[in-house]
Amino acid sequence: MVTEAQVWEALAEVPDPEIPVISVVDLGVVRGVRVEEGRVHVEFTPTFLGCPALEVMREQMAARIAELGAEAEVEVVLDDSWSTDKITPEGREKLREAGFAPPTPRGKATTLVQLQSNGFRCPYCGSRDTALENLFGPTPCRSLRYCRSCRQPFEQFKTI
Amino acid sequence: MSERAQLLLEIADDELILGWRDSEWTGIAPFLEEDVAFSSIAQNEIGHARALYELAARELGTTADELAFDRKPEEYRCSALVELRLPEWERTIARHVLYEQADAERLGRLKASDDAELAGLAAKIDREEVYHRLHAEMWAERLQDEPRYQAALEELQPLVDRRNGGSPELTALWEEMTSVRRSQPAGTTW
């Protein structure tokens, strides 16, 4: 008989297909796990609604749970329960190590003045002397910034 | 069809058609940053359309794909603003600015709705739209003294609330958008 703890452990090994250093559990997109009569029910919410990794994540989670010998039902929840504040401290550290600046905490409304300011730290050298290059980047969740100190462009996880 | 389903289709159609129009800049935008920006915005808008169609589909007993692609052009409920093919940059930016303003007001109303499902999805969509609005704001500032941009705003403003369905522009886009899907027998699994 599979337990909820075993399911969480298994899901912690399912990587984000686009940023494989971080797992779906680190990302905070698994909103709940329930085991009823051997069936596993997972509630999962997309980061960005247009994220093409959505289906892949769903299939990989179901496949990983199947390896535990249980049948999985992965429900996509389209509510507002996820924000970048749900990324775990471990997840943020993994992002930084892989060269992605983790999202700044949500607080006041995001403004252009704020994004164009020096409040963002380069994940390579730690300098705050960085400039916004593009609000948009290679995937919906990332912006592009440039570090004037180490002259390295880097990807900044958007705060949403 | 319920008022709720009609409203969902109206917003979903706006986002789908605008997403297609924005994606027309992929590879041909005036510079690389904008190529990336409009491609990313297009991807977000089509993602929002998918989620909205899914809510409508649950109520109507169909699928998001069928709602997005298997209706006739005259059945779409999108704004005349998003239907136009706009290969001029100043007109594209004018549409972007006008659409984001109108969409922000609409999302504000939906977030306050008693319908928890609709309010929740609107709040999620709005988190992403913040970045579209910032992008529109940046361009509005850059082009504000440009007469061609001002003329485009004046030209396009009256289209925001016009919903005709079946215009020649939309029909031409629909032909393109659904051609691969229509080339296969109904019920094909993709």
Describe the fold and architecture.
The complex is a heterodimer of chains A (160) and B (190). Chain A is an alpha/beta fold. Chain A has 2 domains: 4-82, Fe-S cluster assembly (FSCA) (GMP Synthetase, Chain A, domain 3, 2-Layer Sandwich), CATH 3.30.300; 91-157, no CATH class. Chain A contains 5 helices and 7 strands. Chain B is an all-alpha fold and 190 residues long. Helix content of chain B is 72%, strand content 0%. Chain B is built from 8 helices and no strands. Chain B is globular and about 50 Å long. The A-B interface holds A 46, 48-52, 78-83, 109-112, 115, 133-140, 144, 158, 160 and B 33, 36-37, 39-41, 43-48, 50-51, 54-55, 117, 120-121, 123-125, 127-128, 130-131, 134-135, 137-138.
Summarize this, please?
The complex is a heterodimer of chains A (160) and B (190). Chain A contains five helices and seven strands. Chain A has 160 residues and is an alpha/beta fold.
Helix/strand layout:
The complex is a heterodimer of chains A (160) and B (190).
Chain A: H1 4-11, H2 24-27, E1 30-36, E2 39-44, H3 54-67, E3 71-76, H4 89-97, E4 100-101, H5 112-115, E5 130-134, E6 142-147, E7 152-157
Parallel strand pairs in A: 2-3, 4-7
Antiparallel strand pairs in A: 1-2, 5-6, 6-7
Chain B: H1 3-23, H2 32-60, H3 64-69, H4 80-83, H5 89-111, H6 116-143, H7 147-156, H8 168-182
